[in-house]
Amino acid sequence: MLKPGGYLQWDELDLVNMGVKKVDSTVPSPALDELVTLSKANGRYNWTLEIKKVMEVEGFQDVSLDLIGDPPELVRPLNELHLMSMEEIGVSFARRGQNEMASKLYQLIKDAYQEANLGATLYFPRVVCVGRSA
Fold this sequence. Notes:
- The chain is α+β, with helices and mostly antiparallel strands and 134 residues long.
- It has helices at residues 30-40, 51-57, 72-95, 99-117; strands at 7-13, 19-22, 61-68, 120-123, 126-132.
- The strands form 2 sheets. A 3-stranded antiparallel sheet has the order 1-5-3, with helices on one face.
C-alpha cells in the first residue's frame, strides 16, 4: 500500500488526555465530566498512545508522535461535533434495546449543551503519528 520511502500519517482522538475546558474554573460541568468518564471507557483507548511503538515494530523509520490540542477558536464547534457524535451513540443504544442507557446519555448531552452555554466544553486532543516506510 505504501511505497518505500513514503510517509504514513495516523491520526486518532486522544481519549486518554481528554477532559473539560472552561472559560472560568468555577463553571459547573457535571454532565461533561460524566461524558468524559464514559468516553475514557476504562482504558480501552489507551492504545492510541502506543501508535508510535506499533509503527516502529512494523518497520517505519523516523517515527514521531505529537499530541495536538484544539485551537481556541475551534473548542466550542468541536464540542458541538462531539456531542452530536454522542447522540448517534445514543441512537445505537436505543436500536439495541438499551433504552435506559440511551435515556441517560440523551440527558447528559442535553445538560452538556447547557454547560457549554456557561463556558465549559469537551476537549479531545489528537494523537498524530508520522513515519517513513522502509
